[in-house]
Amino acid sequence: MPCTIEKETIEKTIEFHRHNCPGLTIGIRAAELAMERLDIHNAASPVCVAETDMCGVDAIQFLTGCSFGKGNLIHKDYGKSAFTFYDRDAQKGFRAVFNDFARNEQDRDNRIKRILAADLKDLFVIEDVDTPPVRPARILKSIQCDACREMTMESRIRLFDGKNLCIPCFQKVEQKI
Fold first, then answer.
1. Which helix (H) or strand (E) holds 129?
2. What is the pLDDT averaged over residues 87-95?
3. Which of 6, 24, 119, 137 is most buried, by the most CB atoms less than 10 A from its CB?
């Protein structure tokens, strides 16, 4: 079945991202899949783990409400067009890997049209997930870096020569990095 997201919503997604491209379209369809399988737009505790930093992540953020700031959009830099969606309340989820549909289509606009017109089952390899892909976000204490004096989340502080250092300051003095 072709994309079921309203044209006006797709246009707002494009406006949010600032341009239209096949990558954004992949994200639109991945978000549609999450809305269809998990009703993720209405879920109280949705999560998305994106294994890419491509344009499609903007569509997922815009359409599902998952965001880096809320801690329910996680980036794992694996370089794959793969997305794991999970509903913590329902304790179910799935991982969807884009199968490079229409990769041989040279014309950008035609590729976008083909991705929008395709059935979701033809676009993604889908695997059910029964455990949360990540732990819920936690609020941790901030500690001042002894070098730059900036406040840093305690889980990101490194102890070096008796000093609390943020990661950038630690990397300046640690010789093995």
1. strand 124-129
2. 91
3. 24
